[in-house]
Amino acid sequence: MQKVRITQLKEFSLKAFRALGISENDAKIAADILVAADVRGIDSHGVARLPIYAKRLQLGLINKNPQIKVVRERPGMAVVDGDNGLGQVVSYQAMKLCMEKAKQTGTAAVAVKNSNHFGIGAYYAMMALEEDMIGVVATNTSPLMAPFGGKEPMLGTNPIALAVPAGSQYPVVLDMATSLVPRGKIEIYARKGEKLPLGWAIDKEGRPTDDPAEALKGTLLPMGGPKGYGLAMMVDLLAGVLAGAAFGGNIGSLFGDMDRSQNVGHFMMAIDVNSFQPIAEFKTTMDNYILSVKNSAPAEGVKEIFLPGEIEFVKGKGREDGFELNPVVVKNLLDLGKELGIVAADTTEETLFA
Amino acid sequence: MQKVRITQLKEFSLKAFRALGISENDAKIAADILVAADVRGIDSHGVARLPIYAKRLQLGLINKNPQIKVVRERPGMAVVDGDNGLGQVVSYQAMKLCMEKAKQTGTAAVAVKNSNHFGIGAYYAMMALEEDMIGVVATNTSPLMAPFGGKEPMLGTNPIALAVPAGSQYPVVLDMATSLVPRGKIEIYARKGEKLPLGWAIDKEGRPTDDPAEALKGTLLPMGGPKGYGLAMMVDLLAGVLAGAAFGGNIGSLFGDMDRSQNVGHFMMAIDVNSFQPIAEFKTTMDNYILSVKNSAPAEGVKEIFLPGEIEFVKGKGREDGFELNPVVVKNLLDLGKELGIVAADTTEETLFA
Fold first, then answer.
1. Model pLDDT, residue B130
2. Is the dihedral of CA B211, B213, B216, B217 positive or negative?
3. CA B222 to chain centre
4. Cβ-contact A49, A116 below 8 angstroms
5. pLDDT surpasses 70 at B205
6. Model pTM?
7. Which chain A residue lies closest to B81 (C-alpha atoms)?
8. Which residues contact A337 (CB under 8 A, 6 or more apart)?
9. Neighbour count for residue A282 (Cβ, 10 Å)
10. Which residues of A touch B151 (CB under 8 A)?
């Protein structure tokens, strides 16, 4: 496998977004957010997604030059209309606004409508860390889960991300879907021809299944049964209903709906730590907290206890000098690069990131 | 079993709190919140808990006459020092403050320190409904869960409650611990001598166990493995660390620590719906949302799909004309009533709520 550097992926993504007609400023933001997923080892949400964003931009399903507007506003809140722009660009601006407001009032919430798939929620939650704030970000997604007791896909995997600053330790960053596993994990089992653990998914009649093919025709199960169902719905009510975005079964699919926009909704909050207690004190307490958990006794057979987000920070460190990109992704990026005219015609998979 | 009316339980609780030296106003609040759990069918958190609150008040472990103070404040936030008062009284005041602030700014957050076990989080989240707001309430609790991969109890079951207003339908109310099951459920299995499903708990070496006795010596498992672990920690960071309350392994146990106060922390938010969109429009959308989920196809073998909180509303309706109180609880209340001198000396279990 080919080793690529993060800077190369960022440069490639930037060129691609530029070539797709995204403004210089927005292209930089989108490239940075996209590649941040690769940095964190969330390969499913990184440059691997560039081709689908490109396709949606080319088809006009994402607005390359959105007029992002604040449509309602009070000191501690806003509703942002993303004008069907790239989810990354819309969410970046919305989170910036949210933090500005939190600086004035101590806490703020921003709901976003007319947006698109925004990549990893952790990115926006972690924007708050730079301002010594706690960030909370949630988004609804296209429907993949049935209500608890149901069999129709009425809820997305609706992830929630939270980031809390620390001092010398890594910040604590949680970014989780409210389904027990992502759909992609079931696709992997299907390709390998392996059985699923029960509890991951149900078939189209709502019966528990260990057959990945049946599961892919059915729906994902929420984490913790009715609890994950409840959490997924709460995300949808905040990010979808409250924001005035699509919700429930009506959210367009990034991959599946190539004839309409997604109208994804987001909900974000910023909590200014300094308003609650001196930030230095907070960070010291956080460091102690983190170390007390880290150094607590591991269960039999466990080598090391990890804090939420720690594994991703460690992966990121490991990727500083480059990492091996999946050959399929390299191939797809090469094709995209040629189509957009951002790589020379004689470029090969071997020379793309040489 | 004896049938009691909610009004009888409220009257009894009110007299008990009065006799324990709680002011008239605070006693009314505490009684209302305590009995609200019985109304919702959460019997574990209702009048069954009156004896332990009484004991802690009598021992001076809960301050019967707290000077609840706002120690930090900005337009969209506050830190409240509960002065070791009853968790119910402290949280009620904190949520009132939170809603007042949200009315001014659109969204607000209040963190509470020096508080005590507050009963059901849903009560405070649902206070927001009366003001057409969305309520979010979380609390840390005494340690019962190990970190993911660990075996020492470093986290509570740290519940989260959210309440979202609707129109003609029941509001959507989620109130869930971040552990997969409560400790009480394992105690029930232990009493019955039944095996636990794997995944509920680990023994004191951190090994999966189906033996309830071993589980009770060990720790509870979070919902969804690392996800529930992450959520529990986030609750602790907001309700504990950010509030300046106890956190992690240091929170006093309601039942276990009869020599020190708990210093529980809470975190609450109010989101003013009208700031985001006209409330009438929101409620109509909510009703449609609720009905679309309710009327979606049930899985094979399922009769009815429930929205989060719906089962509790239905239970409440069923209890309007009284319900059967567990005889052990009746006995405990009778003993408490006699001790406090709020029932006649010749009262029996049969006549207590006759």
1. 98
2. negative
3. 18
4. no
5. yes
6. 0.97
7. A276
8. A12, A15, A16, A343, A347, A352
9. 23
10. 296-300
